[in-house]
Amino acid sequence: MTWIILLVCIPLVVGAVAVVTVRDLLSAIILEGVVSLSAAVLFLVLGALDVAITQAVVGCGLTTAVFLYSWRRLPEKAREVSHD
Amino acid sequence: MTRLLAALVPLGIVGMIAFFLFTGETGDRMFRGRSELGDTFSRRAVRSDPPNRLGPGSRGLENAAANTVTAIVLDYRGFDTLGEVTVLFAAVAGAGLALFGRRRRRGKAAPVTPSSLILTAAAPWVFLFLFVVGFAIVLHGHLTPGGGFPGGALLAAGLVLLMSASGHESSARRLHLLEGLSGFAFVAVGVAGLVWRDSFLAHFGDAGALGAFWSAPVTILLYLIIGLKVSAELTNAVRTLANVEDPTTEEVP
User: Fold this and answer.
1) Residue B155 pLDDT > 90, yes or no?
2) pLDDT of B228 strictly over 60
3) Lower Cβ count inside 10 Å, N or C end of chain A?
4) Complex ipTM, two decimals?
5) Which of A49, A53, A62 sits opposite B234 (nearest CB)?
6) Which of residues 16-75 of A touch B (CB under 8 A)?
7) What is the pLDDT of residue B208?
C-alpha cells in the first residue's frame, strides 16, 4: 500500500516541479493535467472514490480545457515563459 | 484612527451576534438540537440491536439511502446543499458577468480554428461513454460514492469535449434554461417536502428497501436535479471562459 502511494507520488511531485520550471506554456498546461491525474489516482488508492472522480474531471479535464482555450488566444511570443 | 474604527465596529457587531448565538438559551438550543438530531438519526438508521439490525432490504425507514453521507447531505442537511448549489451558481454568474460583458461590448466573435481529425472522430464516442458513466454516477448517488456533483462534472466534461470538437458552442439559451429549471425544481422538491411532510426538503413518499435502486426516491430526484444543474453550470463556465477576447490580441488592427 505504502509503495503504491509512493509510486503515485513520483509523477505528482516531479510534475509539480516541472510545471513551474518548464519554459513552454503548452507543456506546463499538460503537466498540470498530469499532476491532477496523479492526484486523482492517489485519491483512488486511498479509497476516496468520489473525490477521485471530481479531481479527474475538474482538475484534469475542465481546468486543462480552460487553460488550453486561453492558450489558444495568446500571441506566439507570449507562449514561452522566461525564467530570469 | 477612522480606519481602526471602521475595522472595530463590524468586528464588534459580529462578536455580539456570536456571543448571543453561542451562549445562553440560543446556544443551548443549538447544541442540544444538534445532538438530538444525531440521536434521532442513529436510532433510525444505524441502530445495532440484532432484532432491528438494518441491512439490505430493510423497510419502513425515514430515508432509505444506503449511502449515509448522501442521506445526510440531501435530506437532513438538504438546505446546506441548496446553499452550495447557489454558491456555484453565483460563482459562474460572477465569472460570466465579469468576462462576458466585455465581449458583448467589443461585439466580435471568437475566431474558430478547425479541430483535428482525432478529436472530431473520437469525441462522439468519448462523449457517449462520459454521458452514460455520468448519469450512472448521478443516479447511483444514494447507493455509492459520487452523486450529483461529480456526475454533473463528468457530464459537463463530455459536453465541453463535444463543444470543442464540433467547433461551435452549445446554445447558451438552452444551458441557461436547464440551469434555471433545475434550480427551480430543487426548491419545488423542498416545498413538496414542506407540504407533505413537516419540513422543507423533508423526504416524502415511500422510502423503499435499503440498498435497492428504487429507494429514497426524493434523494434520487434531488441528485438528478443537482447533476443537471452542475453540468449546465460548468459547461456554461467553460463556454464563457473560452469565448473571452484576449486584450493583447485586440491591439492588433
Assistant:
1) yes
2) yes
3) C
4) 0.81
5) A62
6) 48-50, 53-54, 57-58, 61-62, 65-66, 69-70, 72-75
7) 80
